[in-house]
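Try this one yourself first.
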């Protein structure tokens, strides 16, 4: 399985992006990050989606 399918918890996503909880959910509302995958009460994001967001940041400037 590709590393891009690894699931990250919200804390891990915030650590990767160096953002707060509020900023994380603002990015989701703005459509810049995908909505989380839900499993029970837990939220997860695919590592590949987070990498894609970071890649898009570097090409946006």
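Now uncover the answer:
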């Amino acid at each position: 399985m590709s590393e891009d399918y690894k699931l990250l918890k919200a804390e891990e996503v915030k650590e990767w992006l160096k953002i707060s909880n509020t900023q994380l959910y603002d990015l989701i509302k703005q459509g810049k990050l995908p909505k989380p995958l839900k499993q029970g009460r837990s939220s997860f994001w695919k590592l590949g989606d987070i990498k894609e967001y970071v890649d898009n940041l570097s090409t946006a400037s």
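Discussion: The chain has one domain: 3-60. Residues 3-60 form a domain with the Multidrug-efflux Transporter Regulator; Chain: A; Domain 2 fold (CATH 1.10.1660).
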